Predict the structure.
Amino acid sequence: QVQLVESGGGLVQAGGSLRLSCAASGSTSSINFMAWYRQAPGKQRELVARIASNGDTNHADSVKGRFTISRDSDKNTVYLQMNSLKPEDTAVYYCNAYFTVRTVGFASWGQGTQVTVSS
């Protein structure tokens, strides 16, 4: 199994920056990709950015050019650098890992970290 622990959320003014971290432990060699999702009050959880085991990334249109997902494989940690933050980025951000065990896919989620952007 894979366990995830997020950190780095907080309160920031519009235009500011934050970096979220997600440390993975357990069967990290079985991870196919990791991602950041977010869920604002009253809204569905949405994909923000994803990074595959080969390093390929993709970002939601709403954050392209402002957010960057990256990883440190040695530390089994994924980051989300968030720049030029907007009030509409306010949400709980969740780290996600998709991994396979004997061809069966599983998903793990972190506990979530609050990001609040004030105008």
About this structure: DSSP finds no helices and eleven strands in the chain. Residues 44 and 88 are 14 Å apart (CA to CA). The chain has a mean pLDDT of 96.
